[in-house]
C-alpha cells in the first residue's frame, strides 16, 4: 500500500514537470482549476479525511489550508468559491510542494502502523481521488495552454490511438443482465447496488467515431440543421457560436486542432474528441443511429476495446436502486451530483493506470467538452 | 369528433371567462405565456398542421399570425422569441377571438367531409395539444395573478382534494414488467415503444405528501441543511432565497398561500404542491425515503388513486428503446426536449378531463414549480 | 389655475385615446413605463404631495395605490420596482380612470378654497410633473408599438418640421454670461442658482442635423470607424449591433423608419432623431465640429428656432453653484440624478405646450435614445 | 534624458521586487491588470510608438507581443481583451524581463543619437505613460493581495501622512480665472486649451477628510439613508452590499483595513481613502458641504498641501474648449474617455515623483475605488 500510495503521489508531480511557475495559478474558466489548487486540494483530502481523523498526533501543516483547498465538502466548513481559485497567488507553488511532502510523510508514517479496515478503505478512496484529479489536471492544463494566443506546448503523450480496424456492429441479445460493481475490489458508491436490468437486443460499434467521420457531419451542415439537435443543444451552439469540436480552428480553409503537442492539422485517423453530449447526440441523429445507454455499454464492453476516450451514453446520472451514500462528508462525493448530468463510460488516455473499470460511472453536464471524450454508436 | 373538437375549443374560452382584457397580454416570467398567446397559438396549430395541409381551399386568417404564434417549431419558419411574447399588445384580444372562430369553423367544415387516418391522427394531436395548453393556462394565470401585489382572485376550482386516508405503503414485487403505451388509443410518441423493464421490489405510498408533513420538514430546518440537497438544488435555493413552496408567504408568523381563490391560510390537510424537483428530492432525503422511478410509478399506479397533482419521479426524461420521432414539424413535439428534464407522472386538477393516462410522460426542468405537482414517496 | 389644472389632466387622457386596453399595461423595456402606470402615477403624485398633505378631509382612493404607483420617492415608502411595472394587470384601466376622476375632483375642490403659496407651488410642480409624463408617454407608446412585429399605427402628430432654410453658423462672442433661471415664473430646482459663466467665442448652427446629413455619415462608414467614437460608445454600438438611429430599418436596400404613423421611408428633409449621445458625438467628430455645451446653447438660444427636438449638449448633468434641493420627498426630484447623465436643452414636438424654456435642463444617460432628440453643431 | 529614462524604467522593476512569480500573472478583477502585463505593456508602448517609428534598424523583440500587450489602441491592430489578461501564463515573467532589457537598450541607443522634437515629445509621453502604469501597479497589487484570504504583505511605503493640523476653510474670491496648462513643460492633451472660467466665491478645506470623520458618517447611519446618495449610488451600495471604504473589515466589533503592510486597525489620524465618488458625495451631503469642482480645486490649490491622495471633484471629465486630440494612435490617449467619468485632482503617495501638477486631470468612473483617493470639502 505504501508503494502504491507513493507512486500515485509522485505521479501528480510528474504531470507538473513541464509547467512554469506561471502556469500553476491560473483558472482559465469557471470549470477549470489551477494546477496548484489540484496539488494542494488532493493533499488537503489526505489531511482532512485520514490524518486529522486517524492520527492522534497529527498537527495540520497550516490551519488555513482547510479553508483554501476544500472543494465542495460543505460538511467540512467554509470553502473558497470555485470562480476565485485562480486569484490565490499565495501560498506559493514552493509552499504547496512543501505541504505535499509534509502530508505524504505523515501518511507514510501512518501506513507503517497497523490500520483497520475503515482507515484502509478511506486511504483507498484517497488514492482514487488523487487519480481523478490527475485526469482533471490533464483536461485543465490543456484548457489553460490551449486558450492562450500563443498555443504553448505541454509535452508528449495523452494522444489516443488511431482507429485501425474496419467498423463492425456487434450484436447483443435481449435479456435481463446484472449491472453494477460486484466483488471486494474498490469501487465508488455510485457503482454499487448490483442489480438487474432488462435490455432489448441491440448492435454496438467496435470503433469510436473518427475525426474523418465527424468532419463529414460538419461538412454536411450538421451544425446548421436544428433537426439533429436537442432544443437546448441548438440554443447552446448558437449562443456560443460553436461549429466544431473544442480546440478545432479553421485556418485558411484547413482544420487544425490544439493538442498538448501544440497546434496540429486534424489527424483524420484519430477518434474525434472534445465534444459536448449535445454534439455527440446530433452526430448520432445525423447518422441515423444512436448513443448507447450506460447499461448497454456495460453489458457489451467485453466485446470491444475501450479506454482511449470516455464515451457519452444516453443515460442520465441517476442513483442505482438501493443506492445509499456514505455517512459523513464522504457522502458528498457522488450522490449530490445526481441531477442534470449524463453518464460517460470507459476511460481515457488521461486516466490513471488501473483507475477505471467497466462498471465505472463518470458524469458531466451535457455542455461540457474539455474532458477527454468521444462517441460510440448503437443501431 | 366534431363534438369533441368543439368541446375542447369551447373549454379554452371558458377558462378565460374570469379574465379582464388587461390579464390577457402579460408574461409574468420567461416560462409563462400570456393567455392571449395560448388562445392564438393553439389556433395557429390547427391552421398550420391541419388546414393549410389538408384543406386545399383554406386561406389563412392572417399570414402574419404564423410568425406571431408559432411556439418552437423551427421547421415552420421564424417565430417570436419566448421572452417577448408579453410585449405584443396587438392583435387585440377581440381579434384573437375572431381568429379562433374563423379557424374553428374551418375545422368543423373539414370534419364534415370524409377524412383519412392521417388527418384524423393529426386532429387528435391538435385536440391533445389544445388540452395541454389549457393546463398551462391554469399554471400561467395563477402565476400572473399570484405575483401581483394585490393578489387578485381568479375564481373557483382547481383545488386538489384533502388527504383523508391513513398512509400505507403498497408492495410491488420484483420482476420484468411492460412499460409504455399499448393499443390503438391516442398517445404521444414519447410513450411509445412498449418495452420490458426489470424492477426490484419496492413499496409505494398510497398518499401524496401533505402540507402538514411538508411543514414539518420546513420547521425541522430542511431548507438549511445541505445534506438533504443536490448540489445544484442547494445553489438554487440559496441564489433564489427559497424557503418554502411557491406561493407560500409567511405573514406575522403564519403560513399563507396564494390560491386561485386568493390568499388563504395553508390548509394542512391538502397535498403539498408547487415544489421543484430539488425540493421533492430534499424532502424524500429528510424522510429517509425516496421518489419513485417513472417505471415504478407506472407499474404501481393501479394500486392507488392519482390525478390530483403531477408526481415528480426520479427518472430523467429520456427516449424509450426504439423511440422514433414523427416525420416533419410534429417530430419536434417531444424528442428534442429529452435532456436535462425530469419526468412527472399522473395528472392534476388542472388537467383536461380524459387527457392523461398511466403511461403519460410529463416533463419539466428540475427547478420548475409553477406547475401543479406534488410528492409520492417510495421506500 | 383650475382651468390650467383641468386642461393638463385632460391632455393626459387625450393622449390615450388611440390606445386599446391591451396597450395600457405592457412595459416593452426597463426604461419604458406602461401607459396605465403613467396615468396612475401622476395621479398618485397629486394625492401624495397635495391632497394628503393639505386637505385634512381627504381619504385616499385606495391605500394600496401609494405602493403601486410611487416611482422613485424613497421618502414615501416602498415602491414597485421599475422592471415589474408591466406585470400589474390590476387595477384595471377602468379603475385607473376612476382613480383619476376621484383625485381630479378632490384637487378642483381644494383649488376652490383659498390656498397659500406653499400649496400653490406644489400644485405648479404637479402640473409640470404631469406634463413631463405626457412627454414620456409619447416616447413610451412609440417604443411599445414600434417594437412589435406588426408595427401598429398610433395616429397623427408628433412629427418635427422639415428643415427649410440653408445652414448658417451664428457667432457668439466671448464673455461672462448669466446662466440659469431668473424671475418669479416656475422653474425646476436644477435651473436655479442663477450664476455667471465665462464662455469663449463660438459659432452655432441655425439648423438641426437632417436625416440626409446623418445618412451621409452612415454611408461614409461612420459606425465602423472607432476614431469617431468614445470608447464606451464604441463598445455600446458593437454589443448592441447598432448601425443606425433607433426605429430605422433597412429593408431591401432602402431605409425606413417607424413613426407614430407607421413604417415609412426615411424623409431626408426632417431632422435626424432618436440618437444616443454617443452617436451625436460621433457624428460631430466625423463632421469635424462639436456639440455645444449647455451654457453655449442657453446663451445662443435667442438666435435660432428650437423646440422640435431636444438637443444633446456636451455638458454633464451637474449641480449649479449653490444648488440646493427642496426639503422632503420633492427634494428627490432632480438632485439625486446628477451623475452619469448628459444635459439636453430645448424641447420637442412631444413636449407639452408652454412646458419648456431656454433655461430648462433635461437629462438622460448617454445611451438613451427613445426620447425625441436631435443634434445641433458648433464650430 | 537617458538618465531620466533609465530611472523610470528601473523604478517599474523596483516596484516588483517584493513579488513572487505567482503574483505576476493574476487579474483579480476586470479593472485590474496583472503586474506582468504592466511591465510588458509599457515596454510595448516604447516599441510601438518610438522604436518601430523612428529607429529604421529596429527589429521587434517578438512580433506577437504587439497583439498581447496593446491595451486599447484600436489604431494599432488587434488586442487581447481586458478580462483575459490574467489568463496568459506565457510569455514567462523571465521573458518579459528579457523583453524589457531588449527595448530599454534600444531606446538608450536611440537616445544617444541626435533626435528631433517630434521624437523627444513622444519619449516624454512614454516616460509619463510608464509612470502612470507604476501608479496603477500599486493599486493593482494592493487589490491582488488584499482580496486573498490570507492578506499577504507587500512591504513598506505608500501610506499617506497623518492629518496634523486643525481644519480651516480657505476663502477664494469670485472672478474669472485661467484654467489649464500653460508653458513649455510636458502636459497631457486633456490639460491643454488654457481658458478662462468664472468661479463664484467659495471656501475650501485645508485638510482631507480623516478616517475619524468618515467613521462618524458610518456610525451615524450614512450608508443607510438614501437622502445622502445619488440614485445610482444608492443602487450601487445596495447591490454590492457596501458599508465602508474598500479594504475595511469589521472584525469582532472593530474596524480593520488592509494596507500594503497587511491587515491593521484603522488609523483614525490618516485621511480616509479608497472611496467611490458616490461615497465621497454622500459624505459631503451628510456634512452639509460639497465637493469642489475641478476649477475650484485648481484655483485654490496653491493655498493647501496636496499629493497624499487624489481628490474627487464634482466635475465630469469633459473636453476643455478647443480641445483637440493628437493625430494617430496617441490621439486615443485621453479624448475617447470623456464621458461618464469624474475628474480627480492632485496626486497620491503612489504617484511617481514629479509626475503630477496642479493642472493634471485624472479621471475614473464614479464607482471605482481601488485607486488612492480621498475627499476635500468646500462650503
UniProtKB/TrEMBL annotation, chains A, B, C, D:
InterPro entries: CTDL_fold (IPR016187), DinB-like (IPR024775), EgtB (IPR017806), Sulfatase_Mod_Factor_Kinase (IPR051043), SUMF_dom (IPR005532), SUMF_sf (IPR042095). The gene is egtB. It holds the Pfam family FGE-sulfatase. Residues 166-301 form the Sulfatase-modifying factor enzyme-like domain. It comes from Flavobacterium frigidarium. This is Ergothioneine biosynthesis protein EgtB. SUPFAM superfamilies: C-type lectin-like. It comes from the Bacteria. PANTHER family: HERCYNINE OXYGENASE, SULFATASE MODIFYING FACTOR 1, 2. Pathway: Amino-acid biosynthesis; ergothioneine biosynthesis.
Amino acid at each position: 500500500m505504501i508503494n502504491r500510495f507513493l507512486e500515485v503521489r509522485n505521479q501528480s508531480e510528474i504531470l507538473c514537470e513541464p509547467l512554469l511557475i506561471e502556469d500553476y495559478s491560473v483558472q482559465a474558466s469557471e470549470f477549470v482549476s489551477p494546477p496548484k489548487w489540484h496539488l494542494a486540494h488532493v493533499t488537503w483530502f489526505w489531511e482532512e479525511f485520514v490524518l486529522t481523523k486517524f492520527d492522534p498526533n497529527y498537527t495540520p501543516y497550516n490551519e488555513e489550508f482547510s479553508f483554501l483547498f476544500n472543494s465542495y465538502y460543505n460538511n467540512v466548513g467554509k470553502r473558497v468559491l470555485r470562480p476565485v481559485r485562480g486569484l490565490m497567488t499565495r501560498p506559493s507553488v514552493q509552499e504547496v510542494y512543501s505541504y505535499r511532502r509534509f502530508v505524504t510523510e505523515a501518511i507514510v508514517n501512518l501506513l507503517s502502523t497497523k490500520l483497520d479496515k475503515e482507515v484502509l478503505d478511506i486511504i483507498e478512496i484517497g488514492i482514487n481521488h488523487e487519480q481523478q484529479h490527475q485526469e482533471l489536471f490533464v483536461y485543465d492544463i490543456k484548457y489553460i495552454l490551449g486558450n492562450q494566443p500563443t498555443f504553448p506546448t505541454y509535452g508528449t503523450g495523452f494522444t489516443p490511438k488511431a482507429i485501425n480496424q474496419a467498423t463492425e456492429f456487434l450484436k447483443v441479445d435481449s435479456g435481463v443482465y446484472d449491472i453494477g460493481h460486484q466483488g471486494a475490489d474498490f469501487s465508488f458508491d455510485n457503482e454499487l447496488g448490483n442489480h438487474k436490468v432488462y435490455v432489448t437486443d441491440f448492435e454496438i460499434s467496435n470503433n469510436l467515431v473518427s475525426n474523418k467521420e465527424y468532419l463529414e457531419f460538419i461538412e454536411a451542415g450538421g451544425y446548421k440543421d436544428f433537426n439533429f439537435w436537442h432544443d437546448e443543444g441548438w440554443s447552446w451552439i448558437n449562443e456560443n457560436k460553436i461549429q466544431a469540436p473544442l480546440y478545432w480552428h479553421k485556418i485558411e480553409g484547413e482544420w487544425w486542432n490544439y493538442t498538448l503537442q501544440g497546434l496540429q492539422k486534424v489527424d483524420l485517423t484519430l477518434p474525434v474528441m472534445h465534444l459536448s453530449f449535445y454534439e455527440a447526440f446530433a452526430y448520432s441523429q445525423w447518422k441515423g443511429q444512436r448513443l448507447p445507454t450506460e447499461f448497454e455499454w456495460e453489458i457489451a464492453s467485453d466485446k470491444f476495446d475501450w479506454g482511449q476516450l470516455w464515451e457519452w451514453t444516453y443515460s442520465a446520472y441517476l442513483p442505482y436502486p438501493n443506492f445509499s451514500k456514505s455517512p459523513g462528508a464522504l457522502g458528498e462525493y457522488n450522490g449530490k451530483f445526481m441531477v442534470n448530468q449524463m453518464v460517460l463510460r470507459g476511460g481515457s488516455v488521461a486516466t490513471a493506470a488501473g483507475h477505471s473499470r467497466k462498471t465505472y460511472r463518470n458524469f458531466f453536464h451535457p455542455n461540457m467538452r474539455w474532458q477527454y471524450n468521444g462517441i460510440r454508436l448503437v443501431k
